[in-house]
Amino acid sequence: MNFRFSIISDPHVAVPHTLPDHTKRFHLVEVSILALEKVLSHLEQLNLDFLLLPGDLTQDGEVDNHDWLGKRLRSLPFPVFVVPGNHDVPSVNPTKAKIGLHQFPSYYGHCGYSSQQLYYTQEILPGVRIIGLNSNEFNEEGKQLGCLDEQQLTWLENLLPQVKDQLLLVMIHHNVIEHLPDQSHHELGKRYMLDNAPLLLKMLNSANCKLIFTGHLHVQDVAYHQGMYEITTGSLVSYPHPYRVIEVKRPFDGSLSLNITSHRVKSVPGWDNLEEISRLWLGERSFPFMVKLLTASPLGISLEEAEKLAPYLRYFWSDVAAGDAIFDFPNFPGEIRDYFQRFSAIKADGTVAKIDNQAILNL
């Protein structure tokens, strides 16, 4: 059986009156609807079987943004499946302008949800099953966490033995497999990881799951761990404004291959050179972030030294976000140079593995 689907992640939809006015943000929310409309126009020509959106559908959970997007997705000629991101449900309880956690499914009843439950499963094609998970939880103080609650874990534990013979497509906002060096332990990277990722991986491995689709990190990256691929897709409102089209082929011999093609939104009305603008946008805001990265563990260098090196890293994060980058900073001290080389698209054996954007994965 062959089929084709697309992924758009972290579109951060913001209708005009909800646009944030702070200038330190890393993403260009101003182009959210323009970019999304351009992508949807392309996808409507491709005879897709379905579309995945792994979270951060809206800028900050605004009622008007969820309302706009829910209606827009309903008008598409193919099925759409979504899960909530941290921006979509910023608090447990609703406010006048923003939805609460448990209201999310009511806006996307046509996108996988059949009840007010925040997670779902559906056989979308014969032998192909989507599992949409909610990775947003709140502690007693109301702080937002990235984890699966006990009720959802119990539901998943009961479900997986019943569907393990199908091709499982698991979609969740937070990263389950590391996409950056030591991400689950780094003070800047771990907030993008699912807190109970090891438990989820163990459960999925027992069900022979091979594919996880995530967002949140705003980077193009394909990670591999113990037989599973996690495909995270960059944000539509951040450089390089990517989206993916994936063709799945299953020949008669029972093997399975994924042909991943990534596209970029290079311009939208009023932003003829969007790629250049957004790369500069990230570069101009990179200095404080790079200083934090340099002074944090494991490097832990002095603030004075970090401020000297940070300008050389002006476009480091934009290159990470684009995927498939090879890094070398020969003028850096040995330990620091080695650390940044670890972000390169190179396997443990030293060979180049550029699979973040265009790839054929054999499962």
From TrEMBL:
Domain Calcineurin-like phosphoesterase span(s) in chain numbering: 4-219
Record-linked Pfam families: Metallophos
Top-level lineage group: Bacteria
The keyword Hydrolase appears for this protein: yes
GO molecular function: hydrolase activity; metal ion binding
SUPFAM superfamilies, per database record: Metallo-dependent phosphatases
Regions annotated as coiled coil: none
InterPro entries for this protein: Calcineurin-like_PHP, CNP_phosphodiesterase-III, Metallo-depent_PP-like, Pesterase_cyn
PANTHER family in the record: CYCLIC NUCLEOTIDE PHOSPHODIESTERASE CBUA0032-RELATED, PHOSPHOHYDROLASE
Entry similarity comment: Belongs to the cyclic nucleotide phosphodiesterase class-III family.
Name assigned to this protein: Metallophosphoesterase
Species for this entry: Crocosphaera watsonii WH 8501
Taxonomic placement: Bacteria, Bacillati, Cyanobacteriota, Cyanophyceae, Oscillatoriophycideae
